[in-house]
Amino acid sequence: xxxxxxxxxxAAVAATxxxxxxxxxxxxxxxTSPRPVTGYMPPAVVPVATADQPLLLQEALAALDAHxxxxxxxxxxxxxxxxxxxxxxxxxxxxxxxxxxERSWLVAHGSGSDPIHSGMLHYFSNQPGSNATxxxxxxxxxxxxxxxxxxxxxxxxxRDNDMALERAIVLHGAxxxxxxxxxxxxxxxxxxxxxxxxxxxxxxVMELLxxxxxxxxxxxx
Length: 221
Prior knowledge:
This protein has four helices and eight strands. The protein is α+β, with helices and mostly antiparallel strands.
């Protein structure tokens, strides 16, 4: 089932009713294991995965449950549909209580995931030096000022992305994520594996996600 904004909203509403180091950033601090969230009870409004939901949403909700002890905030998530081209907004901020996509943004994938610069992600990798995007669940961590200004570190929670801190895979803005490039080239630029947004939008993305929320990135069939 292909993920679309309209189909996702309908499925999510129904579910809730039933209830090499990248050079684009400064090096992050030494990796530490996330601490369990003590005394935390997940909200009852978080939907459970069901067979009638798009595959990407099913995977994200399963990851949210699997990593509940590492995610203090479960009211909204970042959901990245890398089956879509870079010319389309494919980073979605999903509010799980009302089952709606609140905002969607353009987001770059890594050059190692798209070596021919087609605008489509072809490969995932967790290897240092790959300059590729990694799939899986991330926890948003601390913000900082990097090469492109406001940025935010990400902690990889899965085996497919547990090198995120070592690889300096972060959330940041970049001049190569510009809608004007879509008009002239049919696609935006590529990162070195980071989740790169428009320079004018990254602050909003960071403020809405904050720290301690999940980003789930994948390429559903």
